[in-house]
Every structure is written in structure tokens, then in C-alpha cells.
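Please fill in the sequence for the structure shown.

STRUCTURE ENCODING:
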């Protein structure tokens, strides 16, 4: 039975009058009367007798009133328990290579307006796992980047981010305004381990698979390889803001497709909280990504000091 119809029935029974029940429910009387008629048709019996002063329960209506009150009370308790369970739930977001991080505060603020008790935890995934832990069900949603094998995942595009070359600050390329990706050929490149998703590995290496260079598993290791092993390599443009440090320059790269930031979650997921989180991220990431791009393009030129985009 429709709980809304039961609420209408209880209101009429308690008020003894269709007009007063309609006012109590903030409904017009015709829709209220239709719901009662539909309920009577569903049950196959008359629930009210019309009398000069309003409406009186029939014997069948008397039975239903007790049952309806019990059903509505149980429905309210179930709703409260579901809300309590949601309040105790912790959603985990896996993040790869800083994808969409700038949108985090705005996304959480939007999410908490509709679900104030919900908690969200961030898990930084190694750059060797573009699924950010989804495959092992360690996270509920991934903020990640294409390309990688997305079989069994639902992927939604959010934004694009250019790539930069991380090079030693004293490298001849460090003074360039821009460079072409082919200019990194024949250089020692930091590489991802064998066994990493092949499409992901090929995108970030942008060179032959047997190119020389140190094997890395995190952005920090990428940067260490630049500082200590004179290696070069590609990183998202946001790295020039998040990982600025003496000894490393970040130079914008042409001739290589931008990094595509996406959300991902298991295709078989039917959790409304996950949908709400993805919606909040989708709403927040796009303007945040646009703002980040503006910051990247507006950084002042400098020949000394922290690494920067030129």
C-alpha cells in the first residue's frame, strides 16, 4: 500500500472530515478524496461512510486504522535508522596524481548541505594504480585520469589539464617558455614499473617502453629522480603548484594530449551516496579546474626562485 495514501486515510479518520484532513495535510480536497478512493479500490472495501458532519469509519476502516498507524510508525523508524546509518557511513575517495583536488572543499560543502552527517575520507593512491583502489574495493569513488582500462567502471569526464615537463633547474630546457614532447627524446625519463596498466604507462612515458631512466611509484619519487638522477618526465600541470621546489623547473609541453580528469566508480554500484558524491564532485571540479588553469597561465615569469610555469 502507498504510504501517502495511508497518511491521508489516517488524517481523515482522525479529523472525521475530508476538508479538515486536507487542510492538515496541505492538500486540496479532490486529490485527497482520490487517494482514499484508490485505497478503497485497492483493498476492495469501503473505509468511510459519509455522514452530515463529515466521515465515519466503517468496520473495515476501524481495522485499517490500527494497522495503518503501526505501518506509518514503522516506516518513520525505518527512515530514521537509514538516516542514522548514512550519518555513520564514511565514503572514501581515491585520488591519483592530484586529480581534482582543488575542488574538494566545494564538493564537500555541497554534499554536507544535503547530508550533514556524512563523512568523507581521502586516500592518495600510488601513481601505479590509475583506478585509485577501485579494483580492490578500497575506495568508493576515484578522482583519476585517463587513459587506463575502465572495464567494469562507470567513468564521467570532469576536466582536462595540460602536462608539463619536470626538468632539473639547471637544464637547458628549464629556461624555455615551452617545449615539444619530442625534445625529451633520448633523455633519461622516469618510468612506471612493468605491470602498470599499459595505456596509463604509455601516456606518461610518451616514449619507447625501453627508454632508460629510474622506475618510480609516486610523484615524490618522480621529483627525486629529477633532483638526484638528472631525469626528466611528464607530470600534470598542477604539479608546478603543488610540488614547487628549488632545483626543479616545470615547462609547458606541446605535442602531447592533456590529462583528462574523471570520476570513476564500479558500474554495478547502486549506492545513492556514491551518486551524490559524484554529482558534488562533477559540480565542483569544473569551475575549480578552470580557476587552476587561469592561475597556471597567469604565473609571472622568473629566472630564479621556485619552479613555475612560463
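FILLED IN BY: designer on duty
SEQUENCE:
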Amino acid at each position: 500500500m502507498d504510504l501517502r495514501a495511508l497518511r491521508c486515510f489516517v488524517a481523515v479518520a482522525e479529523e472525521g472530515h475530508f476538508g479538515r484532513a486536507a487542510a492538515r495535510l496541505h492538500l486540496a480536497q479532490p486529490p485527497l478524496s482520490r487517494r482514499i478512493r484508490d485505497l478503497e479500490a485497492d483493498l476492495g472495501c469501503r473505509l468511510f461512510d459519509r455522514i452530515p458532519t463529515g466521515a465515519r469509519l466503517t468496520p473495515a476502516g476501524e481495522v485499517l486504522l490500527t494497522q495503518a498507524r503501526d505501518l506509518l510508525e514503522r516506516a518513520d523508524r525505518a527512515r530514521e535508522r537509514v538516516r542514522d546509518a548514512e550519518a555513520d557511513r564514511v565514503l572514501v575517495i581515491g585520488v591519483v596524481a592530484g586529480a581534482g583536488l582543488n575542488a574538494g572543499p566545494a564538493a564537500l560543502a555541497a554534499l554536507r548541505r544535503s547530508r550533514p552527517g556524512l563523512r568523507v575520507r581521502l586516500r592518495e593512491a600510488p601513481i601505479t594504480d590509475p583506478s585509485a583502489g577501485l579494483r580492490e574495493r578500497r575506495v568508493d569513488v576515484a578522482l583519476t585520469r585517463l587513459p587506463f582500462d575502465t572495464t567494469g567502471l562507470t567513468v564521467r569526464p570532469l576536466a582536462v589539464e595540460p602536462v608539463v615537463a619536470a626538468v632539473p633547474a639547471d637544464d637547458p630546457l628549464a629556461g624555455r617558455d615551452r617545449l615539444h614532447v619530442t625534445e625529451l627524446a633520448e633523455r633519461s625519463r622516469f618510468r612506471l614499473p612493468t605491470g602498470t596498466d599499459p595505456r596509463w604507462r604509455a601516456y606518461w612515458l610518451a616514449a619507447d617502453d625501453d627508454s632508460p631512466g629510474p622506475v618510480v611509484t609516486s610523484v615524490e619519487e618522480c621529483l627525486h629522480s629529477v633532483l638526484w638522477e638528472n631525469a626528466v618526465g611528464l607530470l600534470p600541470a598542477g604539479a608546478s603548484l603543488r610540488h614547487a621546489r628549488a632545483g626543479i623547473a616545470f615547462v609547458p609541453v606541446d605535442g602531447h594530449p592533456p590529462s583528462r580528469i574523471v570520476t570513476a566508480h564500479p558500474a554495478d554500484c547502486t549506492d545513492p551516496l556514491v551518486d551524490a558524491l559524484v554529482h558534488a564532485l562533477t559540480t565542483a571540479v569544473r569551475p575549480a579546474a578552470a580557476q587552476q588553469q587561469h592561475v597556471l597561465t597567469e604565473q609571472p615569469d622568473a629566472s630564479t626562485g621556485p619552479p613555475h610555469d612560463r
